[in-house]
Every structure is written in structure tokens, then in C-alpha cells.
Amino acid sequence: MRPWHLDGTRAAAYLWQMAEPTNLNRFRKQQAREKKRAQADENAVKFGRTRAEKQRDKAEAERATRRIDGHKRDA
Prior knowledge:
This is DUF4169 domain-containing protein. InterPro entries: DUF4169. By secondary structure, the protein is mainly α. The protein is built from 3 helices and no strands. It has helices spanning 10-15, 24-47, 51-70. 0% of the residues are buried.
């Protein structure tokens, strides 16, 4: 008995049809998008703060500065 890929039937020819060509640029662009998205998520964790958080920190820093300046002695 011969192997199925050598028997010359239409079924064998159908199984050996070429696959659809793939566009490598599409995969490269998708990979680049995923990399940028991962970097953006990392930056959001590292630097991302809401406006209220920034204002609260600024107010606390100003309060601390006024408190320190109020306790200074004149020499």
C-alpha cells in the first residue's frame, strides 16, 4: 500500500494545498502595538496620579513649608 500523499487522488491534492500567505508587517505592527501598550501601562503605574492627588500633595508640601518657616528662629 502506498502512502496517502502518493496515491494521486483528489483528497491527497486537497490536503496539500498551500496555506494562505501571511502578512508579516501586520504581525510586526501588532507586536509593536502590544509593546507600546505594555510600556504605557507600566508608565501609568509609575507616574500616573489623578489631579486631586497632585493637588493634595502640593498642598501638604506648602503646609509643611509654612510650618517649618514658622518655627525658624531669628538670629
